[in-house]
Write a structure and sequence with these properties.
By secondary structure, this protein is mainly alpha-helical. It has helices at residues 7-11, 25-46, 51-54, 65-88, 99-102, 114-132, 136-139, 154-178, and strands at residues 142-145, 150-153.
Length: 182
């Protein structure tokens, strides 16, 4: 199927995450606000959607809206746990997961997104509380991601997950705009 859509723009509607050269206190505050407010925004975007609309994809061969919501619950649970590991262990190696495979499981493909919205609400409430407690020492805690054997600082990961929230909100908005028709 030939399309006139820019597939890269559909995949990354807000662009790819760009880590600033140095992370400021204002960056951290802004990012925490994004993470804290994500549950309200995703709930608002999805609360009145029909099962048909929940099955609209945000790009050709992309996830449906419901898969995006379930993915955010899965991803953000994993991130929250990674933060806690980094805070309580010395540069732990985290456990990656196969997000594309998780999205195909029964719970990742369910038309009932309410349980995932509830997970997002609970995780983000605790995550924001935790993040707001950070001082400079906590921001510099690290973990190792074995997929690329790279060490990440928590200050960077706060930014990455603020981006992740906005990235997937844009996917949902895109699917709604185009009514899943690509």
């Amino acid at each position: 199927m030939e399309t006139h859509f820019n597939l890269e723009k559909l995949k990354f509607p807000i662009g790819k995450f760009q880590k600033p050269d140095s992370v400021s206190e204002n960056d951290i505050k802004t990012w925490i606000d994004v993470i804290e407010n994500f549950p309200v925004k995703i709930s608002h975007l999805t609360k009145n959607l029909s099962a048909q609309e929940l099955n609209w994809a945000y790009r050709p061969d992309g996830w449906s809206i419901k898969q995006v919501v379930h993915h955010c619950a899965d991803s953000h649970i994993n991130s929250f746990v990674r933060f806690k590991l980094a805070l309580t262990e010395d540069t732990p190696t985290i456990k990656p997961y196969e997000e594309a495979l998780w999205a195909e499981l029964a719970d990742g493909n369910s038309d009932n997104i309410l349980p995932s919205i509830q997970i997002i609400e609970g995780v983000h409430s605790r995550w924001a509380l935790l993040l707001k407690s950070f001082g400079e020492k906590e921001l510099k805690k690290k973990f190792i991601h074995p997929a690329n054997n790279k060490t990440y600082c928590l200050d960077e990961i706060i930014g990455l997950y603020a981006w992740h929230c906005d990235h997937h909100l844009a996917h949902i908005e895109q699917a709604l705009l185009y009514k899943g028709q690509f």
